[in-house]
Design brief:
- There is one protein chain.
- This protein has 17 helices and 18 strands.
- It is α/β, with parallel strands linked by helices.
- The chain has three domains: 3-204, Rossmann fold, CATH 3.40.50.300; 213-365, P-loop containing nucleotide triphosphate hydrolases (Rossmann fold), CATH 3.40.50.300; 378-451, Alpha-Beta Plaits (2-Layer Sandwich).
- Strands 3-4-2-5-6-1-7 form a seven-stranded parallel beta sheet, with helices on both faces.
- α5 (110-118) links the parallel β3 and β4 (123-126).
- 42% of the residues are buried.
- Bound molecules: adenosine-5'-diphosphate (ADP) and magnesium ion (MG).
């Protein structure tokens, strides 16, 4: 179970140790020996199982750092996922200087990416569309590619990236190693594996992984909004994802909740990239306790420690159900998953009743406390300055606690992006903080600041 039994360098082992990775996760244990051998691997494992490190350690071990050419390409379905992968890779790559990891995703300036590519990189983490665009324009060259990784391949297929993927394959050398990671393992995935991989080792660990402790409660109701609010009032969750089956429902439900003084934001496929980012930041930094999401928009997001997941509709299929509820009760903590179904959906519930640990409860027993509301602990301020302006979290903290005179305890999470930063401020102090930051300076510069 220990990383030290793998053929890894001392520096790599030390880094893993310093990250607190003492034991391999099941997927790492199963897949890494083959990955390090250079074999093609098709791996199935659920979210949060450590897939990134599984391929990341492989990719970094195969890397010839002195050779300044792209040796590895990691394709992800969305920009957020690419961002998470790049972050985890950078953590694992700490052991060696000068490893250059570049992100190529949509929604970012193409020109800037051209500039970065001129300086070369060892590893590219990107989304299929944007990577292909660079390949077509010959700003990206993959003739030295050793390892090609498809992360969340099922999701990429769901999003209709098949054509881009096939086209990317036209640019990569035949002798490469191809690693394919997917949460599901259906015919479509096996078919693509056959076409793009060579004698792939198949690795599945889903059954071996420790089951999260998740309490699963079901309520039949024909007034779902009302029942949902009663659930919030009864269960008192700190943070919740509510899943809907459609974008429109997500939008409408978030609006209905807000009308009922329950603070909620929706995330769905119709949002612009920057809007998605605003929503995700606010949810993660506790500026909004409830996220209403479609499966497509929420899948793969690394939002941890959810106290409650609600299925506002019965999902299409048990696999989606398992995926949704797997977001709560992570890392040994007990989670709660609640599923609502109307009498029109009742015929689909039999399948769920087979598992006797699930509780089918009476919605009439739920009560809403008088004057029940859900307000966030924090409100988010946006500062129009980020990494490119050399703004660091410490500078923002300094400006707020120094000149502006706020207590450190009233400042929450700070997220710094290239051109923008987000800071969570205790709800009651946000106007004051806003005024002071707007009129004051950060690193001796004035920045626009607004309340999200
Ligand atoms: P996946 O891609 O399978 O959803 P991630 O790669 O994002 O999962 O990993 C989930 C979390 O587990 C991350 O926070 C990562 O840092 C952590 N992690 C990965 N491998 C290990 C390990 N061997 N020991 C402890 N934590 C790990
Ligand atoms: Mg992942």
């Amino acid at each position: 179970m220990n990383f030290s039994k793998l053929p890894l360098t001392k520096e790599m082992l030390q880094t893993l140790h310093s990250l607190g990775y003492t034991e391999m996760t099941p997927i790492q244990e199963e897949a890494l020996p083959f990955i390090l051998e250079g074999r093609d691997v098709i791996a199935q494992a659920k979210t949060g199982s450590g897939k990134t490190a599984a391929f990341g350690i492989g990719v970094l071990s195969h890397l010839d750092v002195k050779k300044f050419r792209v040796q590895s390409l990691i394709l992800c379905p969305t920009r957020e996922l690419a961002d998470q992968v790049a972050k985890e890779l950078r953590r694992i790559a700490r052991f060696q200087h000068n490893i250059k990891i570049l992100m190529l995703t949509g929604g970012e300036s193409f020109g800037k990416q051209l500039g970065s590519l001129e300086h070369q990189a060892h590893i590219i983490v990107g989304t299929p569309g944007r990577v292909l665009k660079h390949l077509n324009k010959e700003s990206l060259e993959l003739s030295n590619l050793k390892t090609l990784v498809f992360d969340e391949a099922d999701r990429m297929l769901d999003m209709g990236f098949i054509e881009e993927i096939e086209n990317v394959l036209g640019f990569v050398p035949k002798g490469r190693q191809t690693l394919l990671f997917s949460a599901t393992y259906d015919d479509e995935i096996l078919d693509i594996s056959k076409r793009i991989q060579n004698d792939a080792v198949s690795v599945k660990t889903t059954t071996k992984e420790v089951q999260n402790k998740i309490v699963q409660d079901f309520y039949e109701t024909n007034d779902k909004v009302d029942t949902l609010i009663k659930i919030f009032s009864s269960y008192k969750p700190e943070n919740v994802i509510v899943f809907t089956n459609t974008k429109l429902e997500a939008k409408e439900l978030a609006e209905s909740l807000v009308q009922n003084k329950i603070d909620a934001l929706a995330i769905h496929g119709d949002l612009e990239q920057y809007e998605r980012n605003d929503v995700l930041v606010q949810f993660a930094n506790k500026s909004c306790p409830i996220l209403v999401a479609t499966d497509v928009a929420a899948r793969g997001l690394d939002i941890k420690e959810l106290s409650l997941v609600v299925n506002y509709d019965l999902p299409h299929g048990m696999e989606t159900y398992t995926h949704r509820i797997g977001r709560t009760g992570r890392a040994g903590a007990e989670g709660i998953a609640i599923t609502l179904y109307s009498d029109r959906e009742a015929h689909k519930i039999e399948e769920y009743e087979e598992d006797t640990s699930r509780n089918f409860l009476d919605a009439a027993t739920l009560k809403k406390e008088q004057g029940f509301e859900m307000k966030p602990q924090y409100v988010t301020l946006v500062i129009e300055g980020g990494k490119k302006d050399k703004v660091r979290a410490g500078d923002i903290l300094g400006a707020l606690t120094g000149e502006a005179g706020l207590q450190g305890a009233s400042i929450g999470k700070i997220d710094i992006y290239d051109r923008q930063s987000y800071v969570a401020i205790e709800n009651s102090l946000v106007d004051e903080a806003h005024k002071k930051l707007k009129n004051g300076k950060i690193k001796n510069k004035k920045f626009s600041v607004w309340i999200l």
